[in-house]
Write a structure and sequence with these properties.
The protein is an alpha+beta fold. The chain has one domain. It has 4 helices and 11 strands. The chain has a 5-stranded antiparallel beta sheet with strand order 1-5-6-8-3. Strands 7-9-10-11 form a 4-stranded antiparallel beta sheet. A two-stranded antiparallel ribbon has the order 2-4. The protein is globular. The two termini are 30 Å apart.
Amino acid sequence: MKLILSVFIAIVGVLNAHGQGYFKKGDFPEGVYMTIEDVLNVIPSSTEEVFIKSRKNEDPVLLPEKAFFYFKQTKKQVRFPLAVSYQGELYFQTYKKYTNKKDRGFEADAYSRYCRVLFYGRFLYFEENMKSFSGSALGAVSPLASALDGKVRGIVLDVENLEFNILRSCDDLNEFLLQHGLQEVNCKTEVFTIDQLRQMIVAINEQRH
């Protein structure tokens, strides 16, 4: 009980230090972060220098949205840390142990790949190519839920519940919003695109409560 209480107090302290959990780009010192707690405490588990192996046709100046990192000294691939802060950008990889229970039928289609945070605020948002291995995860979605086409899924780090939430559809987004006391969006349209989801996340992150 004492351990649980001390963890809760530490998290509350971090959230208060960041305006009730509002994070912005540049908040995270460079390094690798092993756990969600490390991310929320804004303290890297290690500051060992890393680099990205550039691929053909990639812009050498712009950082990619998805990347494989390597430690500079050993040249070994970064595989296990949850997050990497690199040149001012925060990258996450998805872990089942940190994923909302209802989303554990999905996994990234490449291991140890890190995805750049696209939007900061109350929720840290990034996108990953996900595959379903449960066989029925997408089939359970009703027509009005408007499941997103393709493999790309929007993912938020819910700092209040210490987990990743995969936003697979409009209904899924509304369930998430209700859990956090936020207003629902209209799900009557048959098409719900990743662009619409991005716009909604930006609007949500601009709200302060």
